[in-house]
Amino acid sequence: MTALDPALTGKYSLDTTHTRMGFVARHAMVTKVRGHFAEFEGSGYLDFDDPTKSTGKVTIKVESVDTGNEQRDGHLRTNDFFDAPKYPEITFASTGIQKIDDENYKLTGDLTIKDVTKPVTVDMEYTGAAVDPYGNQRVGFEGKTVLNRRDYNVNFSAPLEAGGMLVSDKVTLEFDISAVKVNEEA
């Protein structure tokens, strides 16, 4: 099947065990810290005949943030960063899609972190389609966008003696998506 095969059109749900919602931020101006959110859900409608009719939404549980360091993860859950008790979810809802070519798209949508909703554009690459051994139709995408965390009231940082800040303002969001077509006959 090709990227434009209309037979792929339909409702999809994220396969959370084969999908990654990740991020990268520079730490102490010398290295990158990578993390992800372990709990999320998402669904959408993919139209491979007319991609502009496609839609999607994702809800991420902030409490599930994981950078591989429990102390840092605990700090990320506080008001210094995400304030998980007050704002337990991060949401994204698509508002449009632009086809660049058969594999590349620009997905626009509203991203809400804490109490702020702003439009973002995510560069998405269609990575293929396959029927898995259980008969499920799957499609894959990879995506990336860069945002300024301060635009979402994620403001904590500390100045470094040599200049710069402990945590970069620029954060790259990374997505590796496996979505399964919903069987509408069931």
Topology of this protein?
Blueprint (H helix, E strand, L loop, with lengths): L9 E5 L5 E8 L3 E7 L2 E7 L8 E7 L3 E2 L3 H7 L12 E11 L4 E10 L2 E16 L5 E12 L18 E15 L5
Antiparallel strand pairs: 1-4, 1-11, 2-3, 2-11, 3-6, 4-5, 5-7, 7-8, 8-9, 9-10, 10-11
Organism: Stackebrandtia endophytica
Family: Belongs to the UPF0312 family.
Protein name: Polyisoprenoid-binding protein YceI
Question: How would you sum up this structure, described in words?
Answer:
This protein is mainly β and 186 residues long. The protein has a single domain, classed as Beta Barrel (Lipocalin). It is 4% helix and 54% strand. It contains 1 helix and 11 strands. Strands 1-4-5-7-8-9-10-11 form an 8-stranded antiparallel beta barrel. It is elongated, with a radius of gyration of 18 Å. The mean pLDDT is 90.
Label this structure with key terms.
single chain; mainly beta; Lipocalin; 1 helix; elongated; Polyisoprenoid-binding protein YceI; Lipid/polyisoprenoid-bd_YceI; TTHA0802/YceI-like_sf
CATH fold-level assignment: Lipocalin
Number of helices: 1
**Outline, from the CA principal axes?**
elongated
Could you tell me the strand content as a percent range? over 45%
Percent helix, as a range, is: under 10%
N/C terminus separation: 24 Å
Family: Belongs to the UPF0312 family.
Pfam families: YceI
Organism: Stackebrandtia endophytica
Protein name: Polyisoprenoid-binding protein YceI
